[in-house]
Amino acid sequence: MTTAGSGSGAGDVEALARQYFSAWGDALRHAAAPPGATAGPEGQGNWQQAIDWWAQMMPNAASGPADEAVHRFREQAGGWYGTMQQVAAQFAGRDTTSAEVAQAWRTAVLGQGDGLLQWMLQGARGHTQAEGPDLLQLLETLQRQFGPWLQSPAFGPGREHQARWQALLRAQQDYQAHSRDYVDQIKQALDDAFTLFEQRLAEHEQPGNQLTSARAMFDLWIDAAEEAYAKVALSEPFQAVYASLGNAQMRLRAAAQQEIERLTESFGLPTRTEMDAAHRRIAELERLVRRMAAGAGAAPASAAKVRRPAVKPAAASKRTPRAAKPAKPAKPAKATAKPTKASKPTKPRKRSE
Amino acid sequence: MKGPLGFNAEDLLQETLAMQRKLMDGLKLLPSVDDVDYGVTTREEVWRDGKVTLYRFVGTEPPVHATPLLIVYALVNRPYMVDLQTDRSLVQKLLALGHDVYVLDWGYPDRSERYQTLEDYLLRFVDGAVDHLQAHNGGEPINMLGICQGGVFALCYAALRQAKLANLITMVTPVDFHTPDNMLSHWARQVDVDLLVDTLGNIPADLMNASYLMLKPFRLNVQKYVGLLDILDDKDALEDFLRMEKWIFDSPDLAGEAFRDFIKQFYQGNGLMHDGVRIGEDTVDLQQVTLPVLNIYAEQDHLVPPDASRALRGRIGSTDYTESSFRGGHIGIYVSGRAQREVPVTITRWLNERSQ
């Protein structure tokens, strides 16, 4: 993570932060001065900027899960929560109605286009991996550059190749169509959520039952959004759209993989199909051996009862149960102080979608 | 003020200033939080087959109960959830109550394990581990605790190899996969799982995680992270949060053929409700499960709805069936304070009643 505070001591970072937040606080106080005054869009901008700035100020020491959490906090707190603060500021200290507030919230969210929904929609649009190859973008470029050739009837020596590429692009177009259907479902859920939010707000109109903070408004919105989404997600149309999208994505991916295999094969490299065939044979053989061994009443050779101790067994592992037949603790292979990384199998690198 | 909002500009200002203070605290605290540790109980490897390892947990006192208790966990997440941290460890509580606790760790399957089937998982790995424990328990049957998908495995295993088990405990285990509130199953119903597995080989963890997050997208992707604001000044709470994040996203890829088997037979075919599950060459008949069964479900479980678990009642051959409800969700049943107080005690009391 890059930081604006790199090279500065922790004290410098804190001083800078205090300076920044102090200035922001002054601005807010100024905005709050006249009763009923609104912070306006710049109020929300300040909030988002503050979160962005805060995340950038985070020293490099914040790494691993903390870094990821900061990233997500920056996205969601800066976006959804910041927008809710903006809406709350519009109505602070004055009479209003549920319909008015709900409409302002709808306008604020939709006014950012898909901005606040990116995290929900990017998967459906094929952009699933930040660091991986963007297959969809690659195919779109291909279609632009070779469009006429790929649309024309295939013939001649390159006929088979052309036909395959045409099929690949058809798979891409099919996938995009299903992706649009999925996005429509999500937007339907969002639309229903706005309606439900207004109803939930109306339940708080009685004095003594009013919402007392922007955070309470935000939590109410989350409840309404979840409820509306669940209704759509459990519907028959969603089930069909979800499956169609997944299936279309797999057809596209399978077609792309086929092309990659052809390419690697042409360079004399082993293909995934060949590797899979070998793995399948090994699995089948192991299964056969296990069945035969089970039939003969012997344990298969692949299972090791116990590994030889690599280190002196811990005293704790020599214990025996206090009562009845002891659950013999088998010759301990190794007593690990903690089952942490040292004893954890290596996790393979995650693959791109 | 009339309307649903009962705050003025000064209230909003104070709310924002309070958040600023939290952000300031976070700026100091977050960098001091190292990569979180997890898994607190000493354990020793006692058996291994390929990447699958059987661990024995080592308590501070020797076990009182002679019969080993084998925890069979799901394939989709890592089993250290049952031993996450000192004050959130089902394992530690069970050890303290005198049990001899083991867990089967599936490891992280890679492409070479793509062709492992449910038969391999049940009749090779689970059965191999059970054989090992039996051999060290004078040939006596052992107790099994199946959790979530591991509970489904445990039920099937009990139907096929009942003589090797003394008692069976299932926790948040789906039996009826087609209850109306089961969103995951609803989505899986029309997915072409053959195409999926043939294309992907193993099922990537990222794909599974994305699906789980979309079950409650606003709560799990938005509200949870905004909630970080509340704990930015609390190192312990921050570490708890990050430890949970670690567990949630530390997911193994899933062996393709086992995934295909599981989706088709359970999510799509609802096989346990129709006696239609086949493991290798054997048919699973739940009527063959005549051993004592304790079925623990969570009342607010969004992954395995209570009705999905409660469907076990009447489907097994056992006349000794006990149901226990837990007030909490699918994760809370392992890690909440209530779970620490209630779940191990419930299990122990139930087992004790059957060992006399």
User: What is the strand content of chain A?
Assistant: under 5%
Q: Could you state the oligomeric state of the chains shown? A: heterodimer
**Largest sheet report of chain B:** 8 strands, mixed
Give the N-to-C terminal Cα separation of chain B. 67 Å
- Rounded radius of gyration of chain B (Å): 22 Å
Output the radius of gyration of chain A.
30 Å
Helix percentage of chain B: 40-55%
Order of helices and strands of chain A: HHHHHHHHHHEE
| Unreliable stretches of chain A | 1-8, 33-44, 126-132, 307-353
Helical/strand content category of chain A = mainly alpha
Distance between the termini of chain A: 24 Å
Count of DSSP H/I helices of chain A: 10
Total of helices of chain B = 14
Q: What is the CATH topology classification name of chain B? A: Rossmann fold
- Integer average pLDDT of chain B: 94
CATH superfamily of chain B: Alpha/Beta hydrolase fold, catalytic domain
The CATH architecture of chain B can be given as 3-Layer(aba) Sandwich
H/E series of chain B, N to C? Answer: HEEEHEHEHEHHHHHHHEEEHEHH
Structure description:
The complex is a heterodimer of chains A (353) and B (356). Chain A has ten helices and two strands, in the order H-H-H-H-H-H-H-H-H-H-E-E. Chain A has 353 residues and is an all-alpha fold. Chain B is α/β, with parallel strands linked by helices and 356 residues long. Chain B is 42% helix and 15% strand. Chain B is built from 14 helices and ten strands. The radius of gyration of chain B is 22 Å and the shape is globular. Classes of the chains: A mainly alpha (353), B alpha/beta (356). Chains A and B meet through helix 1, helix 2, helix 3, helix 4 and helix 8 of A and helix 1, strand 1, strand 2, helix 3 and helix 5 of B. Strand 1 of chain A pairs antiparallel with strand 1 of chain B, so a sheet runs across the interface.
